[in-house]
Amino acid sequence: MKILQINASARSAGANSTRLADSITARLTAQNPAAVVDLRDLASDPHPVLDEPALGALFTPAEQRTPEQAARVALDDALIAQVQAADAIVLGVPMYNFGVPVQLKTWIDAIARAGVTFRYTANGPEGLLKGKKVYVALARGGLYRDTPADSQTPYLKNVLAFLGMTDVEFIFAEGLAMGAESADKAFAEAEARIDEIFA
Ligand SMILES: Cc1cc2nc3c(=O)[nH]c(=O)nc-3n(C[C@H](O)[C@H](O)[C@H](O)COP(=O)(O)O)c2cc1C
After folding, report:
1. Which of 68, 82, 89, 122 stands the most exposed, by the fewest C-beta atoms within 10 Å?
2. 59 marked among binding-site residues
3. Pocket probe mutation, ligand 1, options 41, 95, 103, max atoms within 8 Å of Cβ
4. Which residues form the signal peptide (predicted)?
5. Taking residues 145-163, what's their average pLDDT?
6. Nearest Cα residue to 65 out of 47, 92, 75
């Protein structure tokens, strides 16, 4: 079994989302002692943004790419290979300004590639990253779960499903900026949910 953990917080130490993601990965490895864990911390090891040179590289046929363009595409290829190889994916995701951190967006932009991780068919788009279990550990300062202000969860659900990943568990730690008591309760609830999932 291969586990891929992506830490999307902008901080590589002390991140609440990473704490929960670590907890989920620990449970997965406890259940599967032979599992191999691939960890990408996007704070200490960021992926480049999808900018004009990157788009130019992606849309240039492979045999015509400059060495710089080939190197840029290879960075995305490596992330695609990692996600293709994973049986379980653990995403640690803070809420930043109602959305996902730019660090996670760079990862999503890298792994969404037409003809490789999704394709268009006569019946519409088809995700090609099938058969994976995804855990999303969400850390938030406020309380947004199940409200129209939670634009983050529907976005993640949609984009993961678009790529074929439909088996997704969301684990919430909310109210982390609402005092120590609220933060303790949020972690206790998130850990209880993790216990439930792995019971
Ligand atoms: C730049 C920034 C933007 C934030 N925006 C939101 C927000 O829109 N909604 C919210 O509930 N919390 C927001 N927060 C609080 C974080 O979600 C919370 O501190 C969370 O623990 C951050 O995750 P991390 O500890 O994994 O980095 C924000 C925090 C930062 C630093």
Report:
1. 122
2. no
3. 95
4. none
5. 97
6. 75
